[in-house]
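--- STAGE predict ---
source: upstream dedup step, 1 unique chain passed
mode: sequence only
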Amino acid sequence: MAREANVKRTTNETDISLKLELDGSGTSSIDTGIGFFDHMLSGFARHGFFDLELKAAGDLVVDGHHTIEDTGIVLGTAIKKALGDKKGIRRYGSCILPMDETLVLCAVDLSGRPYLSFDADFTAERVGYMETEMVKEFFYAVSYKAKMNLHIKVLSGSNNHHIIEGMFKAVARALDEASQTDERITGILSTKGSL
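--- STAGE serialize ---
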């Protein structure tokens, strides 16, 4: 059975439609109106082998906050829906990803309990038209709507573009690992019997 989800969310600030397939090939069609954010989401899809279609219209005349945060809400919701009952999934995933001078650690637990640990500093207010402070807000929204533990730690790095891109790719790879099924797992990988 295909592990996919379609999510639409409309508010006074944003109108977002998203389709996610967990077991894809990494293809994407993304338009948020924020070029650097589109680039990051394309990398997320490619390196996680997720098929992702996303169209977001937001109040960019204000700033990118609502568009980026609400995209995180919609993506997190789609991840949770696509995972279904979580039977047979590995649950945990991790990645230490190098990108030139940058090294990013990411660990994921699809536990059903939302939590974000985010350890990173930026030296620029924005990259392209994306505010760097919105990176944490995006991953916070994803983690809470997907109901997963998400730990992101920058181990080294100085280029803001590389740091952010390293994060998106590391999260993608860790999530891909955590969401994969394993034939050794019968039912749910938890002593509680549920996630």
